[in-house]
Amino acid sequence: MSLPVRILSTDFDGTLHAEHEDPPIPRRLENLIARLQRQGVAWVINTGRDLSSLMETLGRAQVTIWPDYVVTVEREIHRREESQYVGLEPWNNRCTAAHQELFARVRLDLPDLIAWVKARFHATLYEDAFSPFCLIAQNNGDADAIHAYLEEYCLTVANLTVVRNDIYARFSHVAYNKGAALGEIARRLEVSSESIIAAGDHLNDLPMLSEQYAKWLIAPGNAIPCVKEAVLRQKGFVAEELHGHGVACGLERILQSAKSSVSSETCRIDHSVTGIRLSASTQQVRKSSIV
């Protein structure tokens, strides 16, 4: 049977991988993804991690499968070529240039933003290679309050947004996110959203958990409420099981549904052909009667 699925895009932490579990990626899910890859489905890990952190964690998990594409820091795309991941150009070049131009406009305001956060919260603030403003809050309550303040600031700077996952946040360009990166991979592979599955659990996954980019949506049982609501609103699947177990359940449900749909379509076509043949036979009988 030809699968209607061509791309599977999964978030990593909390969706595919759970550090506290053994194994951190369930064998059931690993086997499902391996089967899909053998049938020609491109697997994308779509994560907020950078490439080195992701590769190290996958190595520690002792996986037997590797993604065909990796989206890192929610925006940079890498394609697997033999045993290495190579940056996808010119997407990554455009992405880097857009962020450099944007952050040049933001830097003048950073001292005031940092001072506001430090005066009210015990949060870790730092700059890395991907953003001049990165945040680790002490808890989700603090992160919510800081997030709200930063979003107000973003309204004053064109194309600026806050990317958030749990207690972590950073500034980014609004045009580059998990959804846009998935869309670019789909464009290059000439795959429509009708043939894409996306799975995620937190705020930074919302851009790809959209019918704009994927027909089939999955949220594991540990997904935050607004993610579950978004997935359900778009007729996606919210699992009771947590992390990779929930994703495996969703994949099994989707594949079974797709198989049933294909079988029903085949049956409908067969009935249609039979009907045509019956009509032809009836016409032959009528001709014989006339003769």
Could you give a short description of this structure?
The protein has 291 residues and is α/β, with parallel strands linked by helices. It has helices at 27-38, 51-60, 91-106, 110-120, 140-154, 178-189, 225-233, 243-290, and strands at 7-10, 42-46, 69-72, 76-81, 84-87, 124-126, 134-136, 160-165, 168-173, 196-199, 216-219, 237-238. It has two domains: 7-74 and 177-255, Rossmann fold (3-Layer(aba) Sandwich); 93-173.
Lay out the secondary structure.
Elements: E1 7-10, H1 27-38, E2 42-46, H2 51-60, E3 69-72, E4 76-81, E5 84-87, H3 91-106, H4 110-120, E6 124-126, E7 134-136, H5 140-154, E8 160-165, E9 168-173, H6 178-189, E10 196-199, E11 216-219, H7 225-233, E12 237-238, H8 243-290
Parallel strand pairs: 1-2, 1-10, 2-3, 10-11, 11-12
Antiparallel strand pairs: 3-4, 4-5, 6-7, 7-9, 8-9
Task: Write up what this structure looks like.
The chain is an alpha/beta fold and 291 residues long. It folds into 2 domains: 7-74 and 177-255, 3-Layer(aba) Sandwich (Rossmann fold), CATH 3.40.50; 93-173. The chain has 8 helices and 12 strands. The strands form 2 sheets. Strands 5-4-3-2-1-10-11-12 form an 8-stranded mixed sheet, sandwiched between helices. A 4-stranded antiparallel sheet has the order 6-7-9-8. The longest helix is centred in the C-terminal third of the chain and has 48 residues, at 243-290.
